[in-house]
Amino acid sequence: xxxxxxxxxxxxxxxxxxxxxxxxxxxxxxxxxxxxxxxxxxxxxxxxxxxxxxxxxxxxxxxxxxxxxxxxxxxxxxxxxxxxxxxxxxxxxxxxxxxxxx
Length: 102
Prior knowledge:
Blueprint: H1 3-28, H2 32-58, H3 62-101
């Protein structure tokens, strides 16, 4: 085993651990906002770590850069999507409470 292989395995297992942690959090937590918080490790760390592992395994080159870019898109896109879902669910909860009050 080379040092490069060890780095790939470490990054891969760290990413998989983040995704599994998120899966457990989604199952265990209650409420929409709490579950969205539980998804954060997968979108912010899990997928980018897995993409980094793949990029290191591919070596220097265009394919590694493309893989890292995809990981970055997942990290940014996951965060933006989480914010949008949180705002929509918060607004829906507010609308439900206003309908019950009137």
